Amino acid sequence: MPAHMTYALTLSLDGYISSEGGQINLPVPQEALHRHFNEQQERTALNLYGRRMYEIMSYWEAGQDRGESPAFEQEYARAWQKTPKVVVSTTLAKVGPNARLIKTDVEQSVRRLKAETSGEIEVNGAALAASLARWNLIDEYRLYFWPVVLGAGKPFFEAGSSLQLEPLGSETLPQGVVLLRYRPATINPS
Amino acid sequence: MRELRYAVMSTLDGFFDGTGTGLERIDWFRADQEWLDYSVEQLKETGVLLFGRRTFEGMASYWPNQTDAVAKYMNGLPKVGFSRSPRDTTWQNARFAADAEAEVERLKREPGKDLLIYGSADLAAKLTAARLIDEYLIAVNPVAIGAGTPLFQPGVRTNFTRISTREFASGIVQVTYRLA
To answer: Please, which pLDDT band fits residue B144 given cuts at 50, 70 and 90?
Structure first.
């Protein structure tokens, strides 16, 4: 069984994942919502990152001092650290513990990774996800909509890409977040 | 005081109108029988329909020739279109007004069933800025179209509170928000 590949992201109601400068202006998850993400991270067999997302997520690396962090953040850090990570980047020279780099031949490398992994691969990073969608490698989209309109920023999907999807369900989560889950449509509905 | 609801179809990537001409622009709507039944229920609870100029003209060229259950309400209900320049219309029970904020404030104070905006993102942006919209019913269709007219105008940050969600068999998830 090849892995189930999921593109997961948090975004504003108007479809932005960050400001144009890359800062994340979305609200910060508090404990109840964080625990949802902790469980999701526990279930993840492998994280597949673009360069920028990897740099952001490296906040959770071992050795960062979070002695004063609440228990739910420490739990997340432990789950993240023990999950193997693969980073797609042509510019990074090295990556941290439990992570390796894909620098060339991205499509074939990711296809092989998917074939050889069992369980769920979570993809983070809009540019990477757009490439994977073009190669029909994404099995599921998990969109966490915050109840906020940002008015400007980086879109969750690159401009010009269109997608026909089938719904897999929705969940209402703490802090007004709505999770919408989709898979690529297998038939054209029209 | 009557409430003002804003009901709009959206793509997953945040567009309320696509590209092309005429009905091509909205060929991604998943308006199946369940959706039409829901629309009729919603229209039954509506006293006045409000539209921006562009949505008004699209509706006014379509509904007078239709005879289905939705058309009965679209044609029968009182309607106000908003346009800065004076305009006439032949659509029954319809008129234009110029000052959207003042007209909505006046309509909200009148007795009767609630007010409803369909489509009309520019009008909704103006009324959102004036905090005159009580509920946002955003029907997210399971499609990304990559290009079109954004539902929310660039440049303004707005915080919402989620009220409820409803799933339709067509794949539409309608999320209801109020301003935070």
So the answer is: very high
Q: Which amino acid is at A85?
A: K
Question: Of B147, B141, B142, B175, whose CA–CA distance to B161 is shortest?
Answer: B175
Residue B128 contacts residue B134 (beta carbons within 8 Å) = no
State chain B's mean pLDDT as an integer: 95
User: What pLDDT does B48 receive?
Assistant: 98
- In the structure encoding, which two tokens stand for residue A52, read together? 């920028």
pLDDT tens per residue, range A147-172: 999 988 888 877 667 888 999 999 99
**Model confidence at A187: pLDDT above 60:** no
Cα of first residue to Cα of last residue in chain A, in angstroms, is 32
Q: Do B156 and A151 touch (CB under 8 A)?
A: yes
Tell me the backbone φ, ψ of residue B126, rounded to 5 degrees.
Answer: -65, -45
From B121's Cα to the closest Cα of chain A, the distance in A is 12
Contact B14 A162 (CB under 8 A): no
CA of B86 vs chain A CAs: smallest distance (Å): 31
Sheet holding B143-144, edge to edge: A99-102, A85-88, A44-50, A120-124, A4-11, A140-145, A178-184, A163-172, B143-144
> Which tokens is B122 given?
């520019």
- Whether B152 and A180 lie within 8 Å, measured CB to CB: no
Q: Do B160 and A151 touch (CB under 8 A)?
A: no
Nearest CA in chain B to A177: B162
Among candidates A14, A147, A161 on the partner chain, residue whose Cβ is nearest the Cβ of B152? A14
Q: At residue A125, what are phi and psi to the nearest 5 degrees?
A: 125, 120
**Lookup: tokens for A60:** 């959770």
Helix (H) or strand (E) holding A180: strand A178-184
Q: Pull the structure tokens for residue A135.
A: 């190669």
Candidate from A166, A172, A176 with C-beta closest to B171: A166
What DSSP assignment string belongs to A20-58?
A: TTS---SPPP-HHHHHHHHHHHHHEEEEEEEHHHHHHHG
